[in-house]
Amino acid sequence: MAHRNFSMIDYFSRRCREVQPRLSFRGRSKQEWQTWRAELLSELKALLGEFPQPVPLAAEVVWEAVEDGLIKQRIVLDSEEHMSVPALLYIPADRKRDQATAGACEASSIHRGIRPSDVSEDQSSVYND
Q1: Average pLDDT in the 96-120 region?
Q2: How does strand 60-67 pair with strand 70-80?
Q3: What are the structural domain ranges in the chain?
Q4: Can you say how many angstroms the Cα of residue 21 is from the centroid of all Cα atoms in its chain?
């Protein structure tokens, strides 16, 4: 029997070794890099199309808890027309309200399928038009 490959990882590894992307960088100097980068960015922007128009964030707190010295908030932000993004926001609990900087940290949770129940049982309308 002939050697057969059933591994997708091996398949894509072999294909990657065989294919030379049209816009791969082959230069050595800074000038060659700058020329290549300009061409690459132009092509990328053409392929992506127009960027969405900015919209107001319309931030909404859908859940809040205070624990471990932090105010933890699950929030929803509008990223563009017809699209919202859930996120977690951590604010030091001892922050003074008039303090301009609070060292807050945001962690997006968009990397998995989000159901309305993941946001808040009583806020499922956040995801419905």
Answers
A1: 57
A2: antiparallel
A3: 8-48, 60-127
A4: 25
